[in-house]
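Deliverable D4.2, example record:
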Amino acid sequence: MLNLERIPDQIGYLVLTEDGAVLASGGDLENNEAKANIISGMVNLTENIDPQVFQKNGCKRISIVYDDFSYTICLSNKKIYVVKRRFPVTN
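Output generated by the structure prediction step:
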């Protein structure tokens, strides 16, 4: 398994199965079933997008960006990887 704790500016991570079960977690997202369910639901929603509108069904990566942090959600080997990263402070 990937060592998600080594990602720079990482403040939390989740590794989920395709159906949303938590395999690993840490930091701000440790044992956070509520966010795991929401993220799993968003990933499943991308599987139902009309192919007439978007040519490829599903996606490989989703980014959710806030002012001071972001979630990056990636799909690989039938697992969902989520990393919550802090934005570097700039002056």
